[in-house]
Amino acid sequence: MFAIAIDGPAGAGKSSVARAAASALGFAYVDTGAMYRAIALYMLENHIPLEEPAAVAAALPGVQISLEYGEQGQRTLLGGRDISEAIRTEAVSIATSRWVAHVPQVRQFLLDLQRDLAKRANVVMDGRDIGTVILPGAQLKVFLTASAEERARRRALQLEQAGEQACFQAVLEEVNRRDAQDAPQLEQLPPDGVVLDTTGLSFEQVVERLTDMARERMDKEEKG
Ligand code: DC
């Protein structure tokens, strides 16, 4: 199997880049953030006190996550129910980044699930600890990043396009706050990882660089 690990901060475009690269290469795209979000949704729905890591850990055996792949890409299921949209709310984002993603038992719970997915298919997997912890043997490890200002600029543009008011300074503050809250300790570059700074690059350029690197590595693997 061939695995591509993509890590990096929130807002660097990991998921859209990973999805496009997976589609170009014929690989499965695995969005690990969605799995953390699914656990957070479960905890919220079951009124588990998020600020108590022991309570979150104790509730984990009730969490049943599965992923399905269809025309719309990855769908995330919780106990068989499609929660792909429900995990995108602000409440779930906050519960995930502030509490759930920091619970060691949650990370351990997802480790097996994520490794198992990479055993069964060629994957592009994105997250925070994929190249370092989950798939240290991935053939290509990319740390996708962009300056905080660039990520704030893109986010503000997205909000404007969605018809929402966006004050750049407020969006930048939010990006910085999220970076600090989001487990920066996880954001390490594996020794054989490649940094891809997307500041100033178009989406298409980023996808092309990534797929070029992947094809080069695959060629090498075949020959080597
Ligand atoms: O990428 P995202 O915004 O969907 O991630 C949701 C949260 O989960 C975010 O707080 C980072 C965290 N996360 C993590 O700790 N490890 C991962 N492999 C993926 C996401």
Mean pLDDT: 94
Question: What characteristic shape results from the CA principal axes?
Answer: globular
Q: Terminal Cα separation, in Å?
A: 15 Å
Strand order of the largest sheet: 2-6-1-7-8
Ligands bound, unique: 2'-deoxycytidine-5'-monophosphate
- Indicate the low-confidence ranges by residue numbers: none
Number of strands: 8
Helix content percent band: 40-55%
- Number of helical elements: 9
Structural class: alpha/beta
Order of secondary-structure elements: EHEHHEEEHHEHEHHEH
Descriptors for this entry?
three-stranded antiparallel beta sheet, 224 residues, binds 2'-deoxycytidine-5'-monophosphate, five-stranded parallel beta sheet, alpha/beta
Tell me what you see in this structure:
This protein is of the alpha/beta class and 224 residues long. It has 9 helices and 8 strands. The strands form 2 sheets. Strands 2-6-1-7-8 form a 5-stranded parallel β-sheet, sandwiched between helices. Strands 3-4-5 form a 3-stranded antiparallel β-sheet. Strand 3 (65-70) and strand 4 (73-78) form a beta hairpin.
How would you concisely characterize the structure shown here?
With 224 residues, the chain is α/β, with parallel strands linked by helices.
Layout: helices, strands, pairs:
Elements (H helix, E strand, L loop, with lengths): L2 E5 L6 H12 L2 E4 H14 L7 H7 L5 E6 L2 E6 L2 E2 L7 H9 L5 H17 L2 E5 L2 H5 L5 E6 L2 H14 L6 H14 L12 E4 L5 H21 L1
Parallel strand pairs: 1-6, 1-7, 2-6, 7-8
Antiparallel strand pairs: 3-4, 4-5
Helix pairs in contact: 1-9, 2-4, 2-5, 7-8
Bound molecules: 2'-deoxycytidine-5'-monophosphate.
2'-deoxycytidine-5'-monophosphate binds next to helix 2 and helix 4.
